[in-house]
Amino acid sequence: KNQVEQSPQSLIILEGKNCTLQCNYTVSPFSNLRWYKQDTGRGPVSLTIMTFSENTKSNGRYTATLDADTKQSSLHITASQLSDSASYICVVSPPSGGGNKLTFGTGTQLKVEL
Amino acid sequence: NAGVTQTPKFQVLKTGQSMTLQCAQDMNHNSMYWYRQDPGMGLRLIYYSASEGTTDKGEVPNGYNVSRLNKREFSLRLESAAPSQTSVYFCASRVAGSAYEQFFGPGTRLTVL
Fold first, then answer.
1. A46 contacts in chain B (CB < 8 Å)
2. Mean pLDDT by 10 residues, chain B (113 residues)
3. Beta strands in chain A (DSSP E)
4. Minimum Cα–Cα distance from B38: chain A residue
């Protein structure tokens, strides 16, 4: 069983609409939780990084939230654009390993259409 | 700054052939990583180098070797390629410290026939 599970697996929305992606993790304790954006054929790019004590972190139209009690995180995208079409990956960093051994989710594939 | 660069971008090998994937970063980062990404699976760590002169195994090291040539360069070698090593390989780097993000290269798409 994956230690980081994401839902939905894929999502199609219309340009301008909002959406929320979910991440459930079992890695505990953890140092930080990250969200990455991966465009097709490219490497992942960091969107947000939150420590276990933070509840929310924003980066432009992207807002990540964290509930350490329920072990859930979400990524909310506001006023979506065509360029938001990508895979969004939730990543958890356990305290052991000095941040070198990350646990990656399988990603949510988002498609934004006109 | 070019960030993290990888060569080649694409490669096709026959079973049993060997090759080296090259990675370089110009951000003066201490730590470097090699991952593989397969359909339906999250990125998996193959090897990492926490600092120049050190390398450690990750989750899936079998069939691979690495060399941290200097602070900038970290190579991944497949000695005898197998079809199970068909994947997209990503190199990443970061400043040492758990709170720092990893910066990824563009990837190498490898097919082993």
1. 101-103
2. 93 97 96 95 94 93 96 97 98 83 95 97
3. 4-7, 10-14, 19-25, 32-38, 45-51, 56-59, 62-67, 72-77, 86-93, 103-104, 108-113
4. A106
